[in-house]
Each structure stands twice: as C-alpha cells, then as structure tokens.
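Write out the 3D structure for:
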Amino acid sequence: MTVPYGQGWAARWYARQAAAGRASRYSCYVDITTPARVDECGVHLVDLDLDVVRTWDGDVEVLDEEEFEEHRFALGYPEAIAKAALRSARNVREAMTAATCPFDGEVAGRRVSSFTAYEEIRLGHSDAPLS
C-alpha cells in the first residue's frame, strides 16, 4: 500500500487478476482519505468513501460518488474536507489516466518484485536478500 505524505489518498496495486474480490476487477484501487497522520501508534487516516480505480483493461473510474454525497451531508463532513476529497479524486483520476507517477507502472512493478522476492525467501525458494 502507498500512503503518500500530505496527500488525501492511499493506493493498492494488484500483481495479477484474481478470481474474486477487488483484484478480480481492478489492477489499482485508490481510497480517497483524509491526509495521513503518523505517530508512534501507526498511520491514521479516514476513508472518505470516494475511490478511484484502474480496471485490468486500463479504464479509470471514480466509484461511490453517490455514497460520498450522502455521507457528506448525513455525517456532516466539513466543507474543507469535502472539497479536498473531491480535489484528491480528480487529481488521482487525472494522474491515473495520464499514467504519471505513481500510476505509471514503476511503483507497482517495484512493489510486486519486492513482494515476490519476499515470498521466495519466506517459502525457502531463494537465498537472495530483499533489495
């Protein structure tokens, strides 16, 4: 998972298409969130309903816009938070569509190769150290 400092999103990439679940439909799934806060207990953020996804066919979509609008008023999202979430969704969608970093395949490729190396070591299939 990528949680960039000062940004309002958290992204997951899937290495291969799965038979079920999110990875069956999407190669990249981005939750629009409040900017992450880090302290001694971990990373804290709030999911703000909106999601931006890339399908395995390369299509980019924004999901859950109706849910966001419903919760925005029902839960009283502050206007600044709501505007920031909409801006983050737009920025992520544009970056994903244009295939700019980190949605250009480079970050996902590094993460997948690191995970593959980790799995090989964990399962005893390799003596290579993680890079």
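Residues 79-98 form the longest helix (20 residues).
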